[in-house]
């Protein structure tokens, strides 16, 4: 597609905002309309660094508002939707699944309905050809369920077996996207990505939670035995993967995006502890900036680790086999875990004004 006019849903959230930063830097001629309801997880400040870019427009609204989506497609001549908006925290889906059903399932349905009407039905009724378009749906590896330590990693052929209300709602939305392609010919792609980490990650999620708790000298909660295994990918590498799917992916296909980087949760927590202790030892200014971080100042962050009751139905292991995406699209993550991790911790240390109000 020569010029993309994109609707980025959930663009004020963690991955969506990083994607908007990435996209405007890569494709300065494209127009990006961000639609975000600014739930607790959405934060307009995540878009501050592109706020003055005249090719970015922020719209405060809900993806369930089909009429709004239709009018945005018309007004901005949108030809691409990249759909990030979701309720994304598994713990919240256990205590309050309603919002997950509404946003993740009904919200995705609302976007599909609007896209079908504007890109397929209306042109057809007017005797015009279907315009070039793309609906890209951002999904997760969690839809595939859980693995034992020795199971092979998830491929795109792995049967869906979601175990939490969050992953079930994402799986439902993936199925709707697939059905809109097979039934109506909507030009869709879906990517299923592993755990992301990086800047602008809401501090309820593992890595920013551990970092910010260390800086406030609070206990570092670890679920169960801490041996749950996740694959971790630097968030900008997720954006690069979506870029490749948009530009080279085949319509109607799913693509796994992963970092080939499996870690047990407890080892991630211990790694954050170790790196934070090292940073405090190497830089005396940190003790001045973070006087509450007593354990970090004393080099004893691991003393804060506290095992807590495991999450209900907690999946044991996720692992992504991204062979298809690597071979077909030439995808390789750019960031090593070492460099991405160091950048991420530095970003939290440098951006207290961003995360402190969110605690
Ligand atoms: N975080 C991960 O590690 C990860 C991994 C794989 C896939 N994903 C998927 O990527 C997407 C983005 O995840 P994230 O971690 O950035 O989530 P997030 O919770 O940080 O951000 C979600 C954004 O969506 C917005 N939103 C929520 N409901 C909305 C609604 N009804 N209408 C409009 N906007 C709404 C929120 O305000 C927020 O800005 C999700 O679809 C998630 O399932 C996340």
Automatic annotation (TrEMBL):
The UniProt entry, under CDD domains, shows: dTDP_GD_SDR_e
Q: What is its EC number?
A: 4.2.1.46
Q: What class of enzyme is it?
A: lyase
- Domain NAD(P)-binding, first and last residues per copy: 7-343
Q: Which UniProt keywords apply?
A: Lyase, NAD
**Which cofactor is recorded for it?**
NAD(+)
- Catalytic reaction equation(s): dTDP-alpha-D-glucose = dTDP-4-dehydro-6-deoxy-alpha-D-glucose + H2O
GO molecular function (one) = dTDP-glucose 4,6-dehydratase activity
Q: Which SUPFAM superfamilies match?
A: NAD(P)-binding Rossmann-fold domains
Q: Where is the signal peptide?
A: none
Gene3D superfamilies (alphabetical): NAD(P)-binding Rossmann-like Domain, UDP-galactose 4-epimerase, domain 1
Q: Which domain of life is it from?
A: Bacteria
- Family, per entry: Belongs to the NAD(P)-dependent epimerase/dehydratase family. dTDP-glucose dehydratase subfamily.
- PANTHER family under this entry? DTDP-D-GLUCOSE 4,6-DEHYDRATASE-RELATED (PTHR43000)
Q: Which NCBIfam families match?
A: dTDP_gluc_dehyt (TIGR01181)
Q: Write down what this protein is called.
A: dTDP-glucose 4,6-dehydratase
| Organism of origin | Shewanella metallivivens
Q: What is the lineage of its organism?
A: Bacteria, Pseudomonadati, Pseudomonadota, Gammaproteobacteria, Alteromonadales
């Amino acid at each position: 597609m020569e010029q993309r006019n994109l609707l980025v849903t959930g663009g004020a959230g963690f991955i969506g905002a990083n994607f908007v930063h990435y996209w405007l830097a890569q494709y300065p001629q494209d127009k990006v309309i961000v639609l975000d309801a600014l739930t607790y997880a959405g934060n307009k400040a995540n878009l501050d660094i592109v706020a003055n870019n005249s090719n970015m427009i922020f719209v405060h609204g809900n993806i369930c508002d089909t009429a709004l989506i239709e009018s945005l497609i018309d007004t901005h001549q949108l030809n691409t939707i990249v759909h990030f908006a979701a309720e994304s925290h598994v713990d919240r889906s256990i205590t309050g699944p309603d919002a997950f059903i509404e946003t993740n399932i009904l919200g995705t349905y609302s976007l599909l309905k609007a896209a079908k009407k504007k890109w397929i039905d209306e042109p057809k009724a007017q005797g015009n050809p279907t315009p070039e378009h793309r609906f890209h749906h951002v999904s997760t590896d969690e839809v595939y369920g859980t693995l034992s330590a020795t199971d092979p990693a998830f491929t795109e052929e792995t049967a869906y077996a979601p175990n939490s209300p969050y992953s079930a709602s994402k799986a439902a939305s993936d199925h709707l996207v697939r059905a809109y392609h097979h039934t109506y010919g909507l030009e869709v792609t879906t990517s299923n990505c592993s755990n992301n980490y990086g800047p602008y990650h809401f501090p309820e999620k593992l890595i920013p939670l551990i970092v910010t708790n260390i800086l406030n000298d609070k206990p570092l909660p670890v679920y169960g035995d801490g041996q749950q295994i996740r694959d971790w990918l630097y968030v900008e590498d997720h954006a690069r993967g979506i870029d490749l799917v948009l530009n080279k992916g085949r319509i109607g296909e799913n693509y796994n995006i992963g970092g080939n980087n499996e870690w047990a949760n407890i080892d991630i927590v211990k790694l954050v502890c170790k790196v934070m202790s090292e940073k405090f030892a190497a830089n005396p200014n940190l003790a001045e900036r973070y006087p509450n971080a007593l354990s970090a100042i004393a080099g004893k962050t691991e003393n804060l680790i506290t095992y807590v009751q495991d999450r209900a139905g907690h999946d044991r292991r996720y692992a992504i086999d991204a062979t298809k995406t690597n071979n077909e699209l030439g995808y390789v993550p750019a960031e090593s875990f070492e460099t991405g991790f160091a950048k991420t911790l530095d970003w939290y240390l440098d951006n207290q004004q961003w995360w402190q109000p969110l605690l």
